[in-house]
Structures are given as C-alpha cells and as structure tokens.
Design brief:
Length: 218
Amino acid sequence: MLSKAKVAIGGQSSQTADLQKTANGDFLRTVVIMLVGIGIALMFVTRSLVQALTIIGTLIVTYFGALQITRWLSEYLLFQNMLTWNTPFFSFIMLVALGVDYSIFLMMRYRDDASAITDVRMRITNAATIIGTVVISAAIILGGTFAALIPSNVLTLIQVAMTVIVGLVILVITLPIIMSAMVKWTYPYVNDKMYKKSIEGQDKMRRSKNPEAKHEKD
C-alpha cells in the first residue's frame, strides 16, 4: 500500500535544506549571467578578448582567495569552521561588481592616453598610477562601510563584510600588476611595431631638421 506513497519531511531543518538548494541553483545562474554580461561589457571597453578574460579571471581568483581567507579568519576570530551557506552568493555579487568598476576605470584611462602615450607599457602604468589613488580612496571608504556590518552579530553579514574587504585589498594590489604584465602580450603588434615606427619617425624628423647630426651618424 505504501509503494506509491510520497514521503515528505517538515520542520526547520527541511525548510533550510530546501532554501539552500534553491539558493545554490540561483547562485549558479547568477554567476553565469553576471560573467557573460560583464565579459561583453569589458570587450567593448577594452576592445580585446584577452584583456576581458584576464580581468574576469582575476576577479574569479580574487573571489575564491577572499573566501578562503575569510574562512580562516572566521575559524580563528569567530570560532566558526565554515562559512554560512549564503555568504558566497552575496560576496560574489558585491565583490565582482566593485572589481569590474575598478577595471573599467583603469581601462578607460588606458584608452584615453592612447594618443599621448604610445608605448602600451608606459600607458598602463600611467593609468594605474592615476586611477590607483582614486580606487584606493574608494576601497578605504567601502571597506569602512562594510566593516560597520561586523558588530551586527549576524554571522552572514560579518563574513560577507570580511570577504568584500579582503577582496578589495587583493584587487587593489593585484589587478594593476596583472594588467601591466598582460598588456604587452595582449598588444604585441602595437608595442613592437607601432611604437618602433613612431620612434623611427621622430628620428627622421630630427635628422631632417639637423642635417649635421645625420651626416655625423652616416
């Protein structure tokens, strides 16, 4: 008689398990939608598939690194061996959104300096120097804002705040370094060909204005 019966479990534990299962499914969909949308936007901003993938990869690595550091801090400071089930969801949304803003500001400045600075390595360094001060100030303000969640005594809010703060620190340090290292590989033709042509053009103009220098070099 019970072969076709349906067995259901009620109570707080079952509700929490169902909620966690639903949230995990939503988390995967959110990750896919955000990364695809961000990737398309970054390709328009950077005009490079490789740079867009580099930025997304940096954000993902930063996210997992921040989660791991937060788990260690939770274990030693909060005496919690695990993160709450919804900490990764909210941390991903906030950290990736903030990291993409930084990346867009950096690459927009990089594009604006294209006519003034021909060498791409000097250009990305200059962009990181100018934007870095603004981003560091913003990171300090945002870090203080999220730090205000720590005294809330709500474990999820505390862990989300810790993850975002740690992630911002990692991004501020690593993103300019990675983009400076990757930009030559991303634009080898621009760096090796156009920059050299520009230098050769300047040499020719200098020689034409100073025939004696040209005669001495010959």
